[in-house]
Amino acid sequence: MRLGINVPAKAELTVRRCDGESQLVGEPTGEMYDVVVTFGIIDILQDYDISKKLEHAYKSIQYDPTSISAVDPKQYSRRFRDFIFRIFVEDT
Prior knowledge:
Blueprint: E1 9-15, E2 27-35, H1 50-62, H2 73-87
Organism: Punica granatum
EC number: 2.7.1.68
InterPro entries: PInositol-4-P-4/5-kinase_C_sf, PInositol-4-P-4/5-kinase_core, PInositol-4/5-P-5/4-kinase
């Protein structure tokens, strides 16, 4: 399959418990549905200017510098490319 060409996908219906706890992902029900997956890239429109450099410096104090979104463009592109290769596995 190639990206952008009718990519079949399925999603499973999940149900969240109502016990007062916050639950990000519900319990699987086994009900499967055909879905359309849309993938967009908008970060190419973002400049890595002084405000992004300051954001990176500030967030690096609080979090792992490689895990935050405001990183050097070369590091960002490497991380993005690695992510794409992990998610869209070549059919063998």
